[in-house]
Design goal:
Elements lengths: L1 H12 L3 E12 L27 E8 L6 E6 L5 H14 L5 E6 L3 H4 L1 H9 L2 E5 L10 H13 L7 H13 L5 H7 L11
Helix pairs in contact: 2-4
Length: 195
């Protein structure tokens, strides 16, 4: 926790040092039901349309907590070492003038693979792995929760291309969500104590 605070302070102070929180989200092309209200005893039933749910869009993303700038790669391929290495190259291209890039991420096998660590070292990217079972320490998890609320909850997309377009538009028009995200992506972490 102290390491995260120090990295964040350094990223705020030095303009050419970049701190990113990264993690993929695997979004199935299907409606995600959320809660709704109905008067007790009412005969008005709600219908939720659904798709087969077999196709999914993998969104590999990183968020800069200082300027709230996202880096996103969309693919239908499964997350694997090759996809993560391509994503690291995308980050390096986006922050080509940065003196240092530090990425906080979880311990997924495809992110911790030796070839990914080697690729990161080649690109001068420092990978910092969170302890196991600590998604509360990864800021991008808050972005994914917000994304699902805006794009997935109680939304039906008849075709995969409509679904993909809506996801793309969310990130193309990302600045429209900044007021909401400024409070969500603050550097305040909930500590979960073991019992």
């Amino acid at each position: 926790m102290e390491l995260l605070k120090n990295l964040f302070a350094a990223a705020q102070h030095y303009s050419n040092e970049v701190l990113l929180f990264a993690d993929p989200v695997h979004q199935v092309h299907n409606n995600e039901n959320d809660y709704c209200w109905q008067l007790k005893g009412s005969n008005n039933t709600k219908t939720a349309l659904a798709n087969t749910g077999r196709r999914r869009l993998n969104i590999i993303g990183a968020i800069n907590p200082v300027n709230l700038q996202p880096t996103v790669m969309l693919t239908e391929e499964n997350c694997c070492v090759d996809v993560i290495e391509a994503f690291l190259e995308e980050i390096k291209n986006q922050y080509s003038t940065a003196s240092s890039i530090c990425i906080i991420l979880d311990n997924a096998k495809y992110q911790r693979a030796y070839s990914v660590q080697h690729k990161a070292a080649q690109l001068n990217i420092n990978l910092v792995y969170l302890p196991p079972y600590c998604p509360n320490l990864n800021l991008i998890e808050r972005l994914w929760r917000y994304f699902k609320k805006k794009i997935m909850k109680n939304r039906y997309y008849p075709t995969f291309s409509e679904f993909e377009t809506c996801v793309e538009q969310f990130f193309i028009n990302f600045e429209q969500h900044l007021d909401d995200l400024k409070t969500l992506l603050s550097f305040k972490f909930g500590i979960i104590k073991a019992t």
